[in-house]
């Protein structure tokens, strides 16, 4: 174990720091890092280099080259820079490269050098140019802060939702600050800058002077400042060589260290581990690297070549032309297990396992010692935790074997943590591979989450590895394999050297009916790449018409969209396409399209009936549908026109249409309605009252009620109302008026074509039995019994029924014999029945 700790460096009495190699860099850099603009993404992200031709000693004619590498130095992209001078570069949280130009324009590139978009930091920045810029990350997103030539600051806390904020002016500032950085406190971005011995804090409204507590005397300038990865701590490098460390709010001092070097450092970053009480800062000069903290001594390393520092959640990445290393504080579990002469439970368990493999009895002695102290569970947990923080697979296996060995002697140790650690380490070792180049630590991996790691593998187009990880971790298909296959398909459609047919077939063979995959999204990507025919072929595999149709409309394939909507049977979808077609095509082409689609035409007619009546008329005219056109004019005569002339004209148009449709009945009925309307208007003019819009029967009834019998009879003759119907109308009207005298005269005017039973029924309906009896005697023999029963003369009805010898009539009378007074009548009927049966 003492050999294993050879690269451990103590910082004070409570912490060790170690630096180990991640990769041996094989990139072929043509220039030193000092001659390039460098941007490295956190969480083992990519490295971007822009060879800087805007340096004064460089020839202006040299074209700059933007190169993007993985963290292991594997080239990802290379492109000639054809835009303006770049002041600063940085990576967003989505691993997009932000390039801030001198004119304030920010160009955004993808991981493979593909141009994504651009945005401007405002007119003021454009006019005053950019002196310096910072790309920073917060919980709101990735932000950009700009220092202009007018020595003013402008920032946006989230480039995804660009909102520019012009920070307050610093009083008396005539030159650029000696150093500055961005802080993030209470969900608000601030600017901290140094001007001589003074520090200024800028928020959205105010500029305030701040003083670090416990700052040593003699400081006349701040040369460098660094904020921690989590924005909780701040480090200041002064011109006296003193490094002040405290909280980012500048309210508390943690410690200070005098490095006795007055030259300003190239870089200064924090190096701290989550949940660790130790705080350290890494300072880099040309050939020296120093780790300082709350200790009288520092840790120093010699740098053999130009190096660049990348702050991480739990340490610092350091890369140069030849190597890529990681410097961090040794985790507690690793320190307790591996430090010299350690008697920690984890250390004893590791030794016990090694002795067991040697078949030595010392294994039993170590194990007994741990069990006697009751620390076996703690020992297993220490070994599992330490395995997660080890970079080398061999040491990971050794620690996990020790943990597995210890578990055998525990009755109820939950296996979840051991299994989960094995899975996590297998994933981490896979992505740390040189060809993948994502050197995540266990702490970074847990902070990043598996979903984000999969997104980053997809971004690097490492689809097979991402799918293997999903299958290994048994992630749900919608979150794992399906999502990755969808991304693969979206990349596949960008391969323009392959035919549309081959691409569509390959995607369908690979995806099939995989749940969670939307062919419409893939087709949308194909359309965005200018491959419309491929998009249409892909939409054939989309089972949801609701996803097919909107994209087809967007692609100007409206007729195909209409066919798909009709096939789906979704009327709302059909209406959507129809309204789109109506706006897209001229009127004639639109109607011709509808003629070929009966279902769509029917639905559009329904729509027009409620929304666009004139369009409906045009449709009927174009189709020569005279029957529907006649019905349309018929409805229009009642719905729209108030003047009688207009209504008659609409009815005339309806009659003409019905004649063209060879519907004689409808045409004649319409002409009769026209005659009736004219007659009703004349009656209103001559007699007053309300006649218009009454039916023919109601008109006759109204005339009778008004005492205009001759006019009613003339109207009946004009419209050929049958006598029976006229008698019924007159009978009902006179009964409603209770004009019994007139009713009696009417009944005697001539023989009733409807008989006299209706007179009895109408009188009884008006509760006038006296009048009803008058007509009961005039009722014919076949209806005599019914009439007598209606007026309540059961006895006489019985006599008539017996006289007629009609069994049905006898039964009817018998059913009306309910009271005691009708007992004799009932007996008479029964005797009549008995006599009839004897005969």
From TrEMBL:
One of its GO terms (cellular component) is CORVET complex. Gene3D superfamilies: Vps16, C-terminal region. GO terms for biological process: autophagosome maturation; endosomal transport; endosome to lysosome transport; intracellular protein transport; vacuole fusion, non-autophagic. Keywords: Coiled coil, Endosome, Lysosome, Membrane, Protein transport, Transport. It is a peripheral membrane protein. It holds the Pfam family Vps16_C. One of its GO terms (molecular function) is actin binding. Residues 4-420 form the Vps16 N-terminal domain. It is found in: Late endosome membrane; Lysosome membrane. Residues 349-376 form a coiled coil. The keyword Ribonucleoprotein does not apply. Residues 517-835 form the Vps16 C-terminal domain. Its main location: membrane. Plays a role in vesicle-mediated protein trafficking to lysosomal compartments including the endocytic membrane transport and autophagic pathways. Believed to act as a core component of the putative HOPS and CORVET endosomal tethering complexes. Core component of at least two putative endosomal tethering complexes, the homotypic fusion and vacuole protein sorting (HOPS) complex and the class C core vacuole/endosome tethering (CORVET) complex. Their common core is composed of the class C Vps proteins VPS11, VPS16, VPS18 and VPS33A, which in HOPS further associates with VPS39 and VPS41 and in CORVET with VPS8 and TGFBRAP1. Interacts with RAB5C. Interacts with STX17, MON1B. Associates with adapter protein complex 3 (AP-3) and clathrin:AP-3 complexes. Belongs to the VPS16 family. This is Vacuolar protein sorting-associated protein 16 homolog.
